[in-house]
Request: fold
Amino acid sequence: MTNPAEAHRPSVIRVVEHPDELNPRGITITCPSCGARRDWLLLETRGRTFVRCRCAHEWKEADLDLDYFNANFCYPDRTWPDSRDAMIAMGFDGLLAGAVWS
Ligand SMILES: [Zn+2]
Reply:
């Protein structure tokens, strides 16, 4: 039986920025919504990994597993009360869609 305190505990989402191209299996990942090829946010929650684009499109990327995420994740240096605040603070809420950093 689940501990009631655990059931109401908010889920933790770990995020890490990945400014370069992403090709965990040798094929460069592109955003299916806007076609971007780099500048990602990688997310992990409950052992599942996701990719988020600057256009705010987010998807479960089959080629990214937990081992890949953990290899690219370092100790967290920032925290936010919820995922919406985190996406805004990190610039992945869609406002910077199409922005290219050089
Ligand atoms: Zn996109």
In short: The mean pLDDT is 84.
